[in-house]
């Protein structure tokens, strides 16, 4: 199993990790102008409001880029695929790709969020999404 | 649009360094003191002439202990620059602005560490997530090689590149290092086959020979005003431009949130700032020292700084343009892959040596050298 360094939650991102506990992928919104943002910041760069809300992500997107992450000094550690996912909402989020052989990882492949416990830490992960599913807006053709 | 600039009014008066190794056998403070002592002597100055200091926020060497070690009687100015190697050239910006504005007369810029025998940058050493890293560390992005590679992969995908393309840069860097006695890899050139036989660090992006070294060593420079250029024992080098560029929604290590990860918009902004300050363009640059913690960073910078078009860096390198005899010699000392990784500050020393005419791989009378590290950079020219 991969070894996971757990998140150190603070006031600006606890909404995200609280959502993970409920298997929900939450995105921060500006409480005033509604702008979506990730990673979160405590003030809206557009309107300077500090009010914030959350919006549950559709959980769909596609792989923007990816690497195979092997532990550089502990070769027995299991490798993971790290993906940068472009969510349907247009934001990007780092996660891991699961249920996919390493040689089948592709840029632009459709993925959907799932939640897995790894090394005792519950994390948002992504798995391949059937192409019959809804095509996300903004997805490259 | 006019900008505050120090163009033409400040010089690098002296340079100094220790040997570059994998085990210095002495403290980081001693490395800093030895490099500084050399730079002060090279500038024809004494410790009493130094009244300012600039180093990296990441440097462990206390200014006051270094002051005691060198016997500097009075210090009027000091500052530190963030962002690691991406801010290497920002040290010169701080020093130049300090002497230009009169806060100090001569500023010692230094960086010294035991980065191989002490704390190794390449190893995953985090056990908890520092602020802002919850989005990366729990998912396995625990080394610089991995965090950068997640961006590089998109660059490779966009332009259909393979790791072999990156290897062609390393071959050039190691060829330059092979004839540089200062370089750790002096007399040890490699072939593309050697590169392709080195082990994966981040598959399928980076092999071992795409990664910079981990090094022990120290480098130092003296920055002062241009009116002193003619009083110095060694040829002074003008800081013709110096800049530091950051863009909203960026990051220092990577730019996951920019529109197109196959581009390096911070380096494009850096180039624009440097060219604006001097009225120069890419074709005016005789040689470039480009920060490369990993080989693909050279590709992204060559394109962003305007030396070739988007996606053209692989061909630009393969065609020999960055060789010593090419149109734009790059990292003539061997770079951070071939010479040493002194957090990028050693690249500025090579720029100074090329202008002075004292480099190991001396080019034919270069007049304009760019030294750049993605976010920060400078242009050097002969003083006077």
Write the layout of secondary structure elements.
The complex is a heterodimer of chains A (141) and B (384).
Chain A: H1 14-21, E1 26-30, E2 36-37, E3 52-56, E4 60-69, E5 80-87, E6 92-97, E7 110-118, E8 121-128
Chain B: E1 10-17, H1 28-42, E2 52-56, H2 63-70, E3 77-81, H3 90-101, E4 106-114, H4 144-159, H5 163-178, H6 192-197, E5 200-202, E6 206-207, E7 216-225, E8 237-244, H7 265-278, E9 287-290, H8 296-304, H9 313-318, H10 335-338, H11 345-356, E10 369-373, E11 376-382
Key features of this structure:
heterodimer, A: 141 residues, OB fold (Dihydrolipoamide Acetyltransferase, E2P), 2 domains, three-stranded antiparallel beta sheet, globular, B: 384 residues, alpha/beta, nine-stranded mixed beta sheet, two-stranded antiparallel sheet, 11 helices, 17% strand
Q: Which percent range fits the helix content of chain A? A: under 10%
Number of helices of chain B: 11
Number of domain modules of chain A: 2
Distance between the termini of chain A: 36 Å
Envelope shape of chain A: globular
Can you write the helix and strand succession of chain A as a string?
HEEEEEEEE
Helical fraction of chain B equals: 25-40%
Instruction: Indicate the CATH architecture of chain B.
Output: 3-Layer(aba) Sandwich
Tally of distinct domains of chain B: 1
Radius of gyration of chain B: 19 Å
Nearest-angstrom radius of gyration of chain A? Answer: 16 Å
Task: Describe the protein in words.
The complex is a heterodimer of chains A (141) and B (384). With 141 residues, chain A is mostly beta strands. Chain A folds into 2 domains: 13-56; 58-129, OB fold (Dihydrolipoamide Acetyltransferase, E2P). Helix content of chain A is 6%, strand content 38%. Chain A has 1 helix and 8 strands; from the N terminus they run αββββββββ. Chain A has a 5-stranded antiparallel β-sheet, with no helix packed on it. In chain A, strands 2-1-3 form a 3-stranded antiparallel β-sheet. Mean pLDDT of chain A is 89; it is low at 137-141. Chain B is of the alpha/beta class. In chain B, the strands form 2 sheets. A 9-stranded mixed β-sheet of chain B has the order 3-2-4-7-1-8-11-10-9, with helices on both faces. Chain B has a two-stranded antiparallel sheet with strand order 5-6. The interface between A and B is large, with 36 and 38 residues.
